[in-house]
Amino acid sequence: MNAQLRPAPEADARLQAFDWARISGELDTHGCAMLEALLCPQECAALAGLYAGDEGFRSRVVMGRHGFGRGEYRYFSYPLPELVEELRSAAYPRLAPIANRWNASMGLPVRYPASHAEFMARCHAAGQRRPTPLLLQYGAGDYNCLHQDLYGEHVFPLQLAILLSEPGRDFGGGEFVLTEQRPRMQSRVEVVPLRQGDAVVFAVHQRPLQGTRGSYRVTMRHGVSRVRSGHRHTLGIIFHDAT
Ligand SMILES: O=C(O)CCC(=O)C(=O)O
Ligand SMILES: [Fe+2]
């Protein structure tokens, strides 16, 4: 990798501290893995605080207007806040080998380049130029329906969500949930017990599942259960851009 393609050293070192063999194993087994305390409380508060500002976003979506749930989110504009940009480019090279392994085992031909800059070039060349990292904001009664963050032909199959608020103190309810729909079987649900600053890395839409008769594809969706009290903010880092 040349210098321009290399992720920022600070974010890279922070991610390096996690046990990637464990994360990779949990992704294979469960379709998600936690990265505890990826951000400190000050960083969480600073990021959540951006939500109310007038700058740095390309659009705002009120979920209730689209049947997406209740609550709202804003997509960042480029240039992304430094920390978001750094985490996106530093997390990607650790996830690309997992994504490539998953595609190989699902019989999918797409392979992902080693650096996020190279993957961005692929997205941008295909007209997917709009940034997808976002901040979400929920109040009492809000929720996020099960969904998949697909924004065009090019999809990176893993994404990150970082909880910026502290459960029990800032909000109640509002659990991050994932469902896994297996062919001709009943669906499985997973609740991810995030605390403030924790990240979850999870499958965007499909993942391979090792069965007794080989590997098959399962369909994943994620969402947030009803926030029962208080306010909850999340940072979402999606690696493909949008049309
Ligand atoms: O608020 C959450 O925890 C879920 C956010 C989400 O849907 C995403 O980051 O893609
Ligand atoms: Fe999402």
Automatic annotation (TrEMBL):
<dbReference type="Pfam" id="PF09859">
    <property type="entry name" value="Oxygenase-NA"/>
</dbReference>
<keyword id="KW-0408">Iron</keyword>
<dbReference type="GO" id="GO:0046872">
    <property type="term" value="F:metal ion binding"/>
</dbReference>
<dbReference type="InterPro" id="IPR018655">
    <property type="entry name" value="DUF2086"/>
</dbReference>
<feature type="domain" description="Fe2OG dioxygenase">
    <location>
        <begin position="129"/>
        <end position="242"/>
    </location>
</feature>
<protein>
    <submittedName>
        <fullName>Proline hydroxylase</fullName>
    </submittedName>
</protein>
<keyword id="KW-0560">Oxidoreductase</keyword>
<comment type="similarity">
    <text>Belongs to the iron/ascorbate-dependent oxidoreductase family.</text>
</comment>
<dbReference type="InterPro" id="IPR005123">
    <property type="entry name" value="Oxoglu/Fe-dep_dioxygenase_dom"/>
</dbReference>
<dbReference type="GO" id="GO:0016491">
    <property type="term" value="F:oxidoreductase activity"/>
</dbReference>
<keyword id="KW-0479">Metal-binding</keyword>
